[in-house]
Amino acid sequence: MASQKLIELLNKGVSRELQVSLQYMWDHVRIISMAADTVGDVFRKIAIEEMKHAEQISERIDYLGGVPTTDVDPVVIGKTPVEMIELGKKAEEEALVLYKATIKQAVEEGDVVTRHLFEDILEDEEEHHHIFTHLLKK
């Protein structure tokens, strides 16, 4: 059975995944610029991926005997396309730190499945971070 610490880390993951899926979907709807089709589509695609992450993590919490949270981290919306992308980059950086800690905790507890799940999610988050970083260079 998973420790309370691991369940808390997993629920923190759910809260942030829900937060960024809302943030990025709202960014997708609100973005106004010449790159709206391109950047807006990026936000939409990533928002959907983040919602899938929330679902995967919630299913894992349930399997481990925990209760998935319905709490959502505060949603922060940028006022300009650049600010939206900067906030997205920051959110992905925070995810990288959280998910590395979650992987470490899963390893300490011998939970191979949770470790693999978060390694896969971490790979997606690194890609999101790379996309936002690249967009900021344009």
Give the gist of this structure.
The chain is mainly α and 138 residues long. The chain has a single domain (4-137), classed as Ferritin (Up-down Bundle).
Blueprint of the fold:
Elements lengths: L3 H27 L5 H28 L17 H28 L3 H26 L1
Helix pairs in contact: 1-2, 1-3, 2-4, 3-4
Notes on the structure:
Helices cover 79% and strands 0% of the residues. It is built from four helices and no strands.
Notable traits:
138 residues; mainly alpha; elongated
Distance between the termini: 47 Å
Q: Please write the string of helix (H) and strand (E) elements.
A: HHHH
Q: Given the helix and strand composition, which structural class is it?
A: mainly alpha
Please name the CATH architecture.
Up-down Bundle
The CATH topology is what?
A: Ferritin
Kindly state the percentage of residues in helix.
over 70%
Number of discrete domains: 1
Give a quick account of the main beta sheet: strands, pairing sense, barrel closure.
none
Low-confidence stretches: none
CATH top level is Mainly Alpha
Report Rg. Answer: 15 Å
The fourth-level CATH homologous superfamily is Ferritin, core subunit, four-helix bundle
Tally of separate helices: 4
Strand content range:
under 5%
Number of strands: 0
Give the overall silhouette.
Answer: elongated
Mean pLDDT: 94
